[in-house]
Amino acid sequence: MKVKIDEVVITDRIRQELHDLYELKSSIRQVGLLNPIIINEEYELLSGFRRLNACRQLGWKEIDAIMVHTGDDELKKLEVEYHENIGRKDLTEVDVRAYEKKRLTLLNPPKRFHFSNFLKSILNFFCRLFGKKKMSEDQN
User: Fold this and answer.
1) How many Cα atoms sit within 13 Å of 27 on the Cβ side?
2) Which residues of 56-67 are buried (b: 16+ CB within 10 A; e: fewer)?
3) What H or E segment, with its residue span, contains residue 118?
4) pTM score of the predicted model
5) Among candidate residues 14, 86, 5, 16, the one with its CA nearest the CA of residue 39
6) What gap in Å lies between CA 44 and CA 39, rounded to an integer?
7) Where do the structural domains in the chain lie, given as residue ranges?
8) What is the pLDDT of residues 69-97, one digit of tens each?
9) Domain 2-91 adopts which CATH fold?
10) At a CB cut-off of 8 Å and minimum separation 6, what does 99 contact?
């Protein structure tokens, strides 16, 4: 579901710091919001504090959200926030380097070595050497 960012209510949070949102905003700009925020039926934010703020800073008016019914159960609200955050592991520098290497390979695939082209090159070399007609790409 989509909700208006201004309608999301932010209450006490486990994570108090936003930290730098530059990378998150860059990611959202590039591929969109991959994980919706989580709210309850009162539109209280249970999970996605950084995502919400990043989208707000990007000028978004609406954001994708998942609604979890918590009623007045403060423990359930706390559990949703905690478990969504504890399950997330930040990428290590090794993970980031592996991603960058794979991305570069996909963007610039290595040129394939075709054995048939190699053989044609050798044949053409000998044809030039002995004054014969060169083999074209269409000849097999």
Assistant:
1) 11
2) eeeeeeebbbee
3) helix 115-129
4) 0.66
5) 5
6) 5
7) 2-91
8) 998 888 888 888 888 877 766 767 887 88
9) 3.90.1530
10) 91
